[in-house]
Design goal:
The structure holds 2 protein chains of 2 kinds. Chain A is built from 6 helices and 3 strands. By secondary structure, chain A is an alpha+beta fold. Chain A has a 3-stranded antiparallel beta sheet. In chain A, strand 1 and strand 2 (39-48) form a beta hairpin. Chain B has helices at 6-11, 38-50, 61-80, 95-110, 129-138, 155-163, 184-193, 213-216, 241-246, 281-297, 299-318, 348-357, 370-376, 393-409; strands at 19-20, 23-24, 26-27, 89-92, 116-120, 141-145, 168-172, 197-201, 220-224, 235-239, 257-260, 265-267, 323-326, 338-343, 360-361, 363-365, 382-386. By secondary structure, chain B is an alpha/beta fold. Chain B has 14 helices and 17 strands. The interface between A and B is medium-sized, with 18 and 15 residues.
């Protein structure tokens, strides 16, 4: 792991996170907790015609989890829920531009895991194995 | 007292010769596990290469050799902690298992509904969860000695806890988060006046300071091999002969019995009564060179060395703005070589990740002491550096360099 994990962009997203608010009128939400760092992230979504129309997150955590959640919520607006169901860890690596390594993988993936679970809940489906393993 | 010669000591630890991208390994996580000297690595390898056999069974040369080496290691450990003899040394996997053995065996026999169990707020989960389980099972009451604002045990709270005549007081000798060294000798004296038994969690003390269980006077003392230069998977429960003799075994099988009939059996003598099945033979054998290494250095000198490093580290950290440390005031002889800290506005896991880029290994998290860290320190986690015989001031300078990099990345003033 190189110093790039703490790229200026990710740190800026941690210090001034985008879309960080709770959403009382969301269509679905999901809360995830990472026992390693104590990251505590809830993702809220609004869905219309199979697409994400609004998304936010709330909670606290390390720079990797909060910075990634900020970037993810920016990137996901307008995507279809079918598309989100298929997203895996590679998507996070692309999003933050680096593989965070095994020690911090859970921090990086926690918001995607919460988002995918919120989508599965919205669709009244059980999360698939890949989501559970994130 | 002459300081330890760290340059010489480092030569015995092959892992400390390693480097990553031109940066040498700076290991500041010995409270989690210590590194191992060649003497320990070679002893284990020698056993497997030259006299691997099961113990207490074979009537042939290498089996006798293995049995002798294993039993002798118990004698070395007994001497190291001032126990009377090796029958007071029960080998287990680690400190956690040692404490669980007492809770499951002694606790099951001696704790009844409404009895009090007294522990402290600074306990590691290993000296906390077994008592929660026992208290639930027996409907006993679990009481806590409070930790004061000075990060030391609150004497008033201790007295109040003892007034309830707890059946057992289980207390850490040295906190793995705060570095606070508790006066377990005086606590034991006081507890015994109330008829309480005393268990001391020595995971963070046996590796770092002179320990004499008879001087302390406690009934049980638990510690791990892997934090004191020894291998993983081996730990010790010291118990007074009287207590161990009165305790029922909790695991049945080979080696822990004298005679077995179809519907009954008689137990082996202590300590074997508690060691069913094939033992961790390599682990036991690895304890001898670990203990001898520390004896050669002298535990007084080890303690003094770490006290100097701690003083230096806290001094250096106090010069940096927005860095907070958690532990008792130094200079009173009750601060072990553990320095927990946080950098304002930065999660400790991010701190540890950035340290890793400097090849400086520290620990970040709740350090298996969640109630202490989250409820008393009011932190979601803390970063921790911990010192041992192979560390010197230059290691702390590397940590300070890494702290400055963290502050630069996160724009902390």
């Amino acid at each position: 792991m190189g110093l790039d994990l703490y790229a200026e962009d990710l740190v800026a997203n941690y210090e001034h996170p985008h879309n960080k608010k709770s959403m009382p009128d969301s269509d679905s939400k999901s809360h995830e907790y990472n026992t390693t760092c104590g990251d505590d992230i809830t993702v809220y979504i609004k869905v219309k015609d199979g697409k994400i129309t609004d998304i936010s997150f709330d909670g606290s955590g390390c720079a990797i989890s909060v910075g990634t959640a900020s970037k993810l919520t920016d990137a996901i607006k307008g995507k279809s829920i079918d598309e989100i169901e298929k997203l895996g860890f590679d998507y996070i690596v692309d999003l933050i531009g680096i593989d965070p390594g095994p020690a911090r993988a859970k921090c990086a993936s926690i918001s995607l895991k919460a988002l995918k679970k919120a989508v599965f809940i919205y669709e009244h489906k059980k999360p698939d194995n890949e989501t559970e393993k994130l | 007292m002459a300081r330890l010669n760290v340059d010489d000591i480092k030569k015995d630890f092959p892992i400390l010769q390693s480097s990553k991208e031109g940066r040498r390994l700076v290991y500041l996580d010995s409270a989690a596990t210590s590194q191992k000297p060649n003497q320990v690595i070679d002893a284990i390898s020698d056993y497997y290469r030259n006299y691997n056999a099961n113990i207490h069974r074979g009537i042939y040369n290498i089996a006798e050799e293995a049995t002798e080496a294993y039993e002798n290691s118990k004698k070395d450990v007994a001497k190291f902690i001032g126990a009377d003899s090796y029958d007071e040394i029960v080998y287990v996997r680690n400190t956690t298992e040692a404490i669980n053995l007492v809770a499951l065996s002694w606790g099951d026999k001696n704790i009844a509904e409404g009895d009090h169990i007294l522990i402290s707020e600074m306990e590691h989960h290993s000296n906390l969860v077994p008592w929660i389980l026992l208290a639930k099972k027996k409907k006993a009451k679990l009481d806590y000695i409070k930790v004061g604002n000075d990060y030391r045990l609150d004497r008033q709270s201790l007295s109040e806890g003892l007034e309830k005549d707890p059946k057992i007081v289980a207390i850490t000798h040295s906190s793995n988060v705060l570095g606070t060294i508790n006066d377990v000798k005086s606590i034991t004296n006081e507890a015994h006046r109330h008829g309480s038994k005393v268990l001391v969690d020595g995971a963070q003390s046996v590796p770092h300071m002179p320990v004499n269980v008879k001087e302390i006077g406690c009934d049980f003392y638990a510690f791990s091999g892997h934090k004191m230069l020894g291998p993983t998977g081996i730990g010790t429960l010291y118990g007074s002969r009287e207590e161990l003799n009165n305790m029922p075994p909790i695991i049945g099988g080979g080696d822990m019995i004298k005679t077995v009939e179809f519907y009954s059996c008689t137990w082996n003598d202590i300590p074997w009564k508690f060691e069913a099945g094939t033992s961790n033979i390599e682990g036991g054998i690895g304890m001898t060179p670990a203990v001898k290494y520390l004896e050669n250095l002298g535990m007084d000198r080890v303690f003094e060395h770490e006290a100097e490093l701690t003083k230096y580290a806290i001094g250096e950290l106090s010069k940096i703005d927005n860095v907070e440390t958690f532990g008792p005031e130094i200079g009173k002889g009750d601060h072990a070589g553990v320095v927990s800290f946080n950098i304002k506005g930065v999660h400790p896991h991010d701190v540890a990740s950035i340290f890793d880029n400097y090849n400086v290994a520290i620990r970040a998290g709740h350090h298996c002491a969640m109630p202490l860290v989250t409820q008393l320190l009011k932190q979601s986690a803390v970063a921790r550096m911990s010192f041992y015989i192979y560390n010197d001031e230059s290691d702390i300078d590397k940590a300070v360099e890494a702290i400055k990099e963290v502050k630069r990345i996160f724009k902390v003033k």
